[in-house]
Amino acid sequence: MKKDNMSTEKLNLYFDATATKPIDADLLAEYCANLKTYYANPAAVYDSGLASKKLIQDALADLAKYFGVESRQLLVTSGATESTNTVFYNFAKRHRQQDVILLGAGEHQASQIAAYRLAKDLNLKLVIVPLADDYRLNLSELENLFKQYGERILALSNLSVSNETGTINDLAAISRLLKQYAPKALWHVDDVQGWGKIYFDFTELKVDYVTLAGHKIGAPKGIGLLYIREPKYFQPFIVGGGQQNNLRSGTENPPLVRALALANSKHCALAELDKNWKHLSKLRNLLLTELKPIDYVCHTANEAWQYPGLLALSFKDIRGEVLLHSLERYGIAVSTSSSCHNLAAGTKNQKVFGEPIFKEPFKDNHLRITLTSEHTEADIKYLANAIKQEVNLLRSHK
Questions:
Q1: 307 touches 198 (CB < 8 A)
Q2: Which tens digits make up the pLDDT trace of 99-142?
Q3: Which SS3 state, helix, strand or coil, does residue 122 take?
Q4: Residue 101's CB: how many other CB atoms inside 10 A?
Q5: Domains along the chain?
Q6: Which SUPFAM superfamilies does the UniProt entry name for this protein (predicted)?
Q7: 3-state secondary structure at position 226
């Protein structure tokens, strides 16, 4: 479809890597080849089984080295949702006299619903830690809650990076507050959006559990990780054959674990993080500059605590979903919010907490745009021109 001042060629530009990152062709090729080679059950004691087991061990060793932890502290799961539910199951198992759970506002639905179920089943008090005006966890409010509940706190669960705004929580400050006011409380960090964007030392900050998802960094879907600070206290959520040192039963998929390690080495290398940050900052600034002629609001403008590859933009008088579908005509894929949030919102009996991150008049008229290292300045200009044309067109019909 021809658009004024734009090429007649329809591109295929993907700006939703926050939802899932496409798999690289070379990684996919190796994964498929490994499926043919390492088909044996890794629990088998013959040569091909031992080879499958070694593929897993080597992959986990690479991942453990990256995170600065031991392989035994990494549990392979089916994804972040399983990892998070496993964490809250362990909160329940380690519950004694503590009766308060702290949950950051704006958390992923897996954490919200698991926390609600845990609080309901054990008659615990679930307290939501509000966000500050900058969309990060409000540290003053968190400190007040620590002072109020102290040793009654069983656990705190919060994001490292928001999947809605890209804002980065001050994990070092949260760690200090925990140590000062609630040293016995368990701490879960949902690092699904942080993996490959920021890096923090699990051990130094004394995080008890960290949730990670493979498909966010370009691995195939269906695999994730759970970091466990003290495996000796861990209670398995899935029981059966006793795989993974009796911490999670179920036959492992060696090529999938290998693919996860490959995706990590390719997309999350520490040496590349700063380079990617600078590239994405440049693209982000270009997009915001190109959009200046139209009336918009950028909800995440402070670069000090903002991941530059994720932008939350609102356009006055235009619903985000309408603009999303308008951009599809240009071959552009963006989103309005978390894909999991979209599903949960339409599901009965799903408990979602707190106020919406974006208040009126921005509640329904924002776009979430994810930039990656693969995007170019030409891609950004094409995106900006498409947004400007569609915004002007939609406003002209008001």
A1: yes
A2: 899 999 989 999 999 999 999 999 999 999 999 988 899 999 99
A3: helix
A4: 27
A5: 29-268 (3.40.640.10), 270-397 (3.90.1150.10)
A6: PLP-dependent transferases
A7: strand
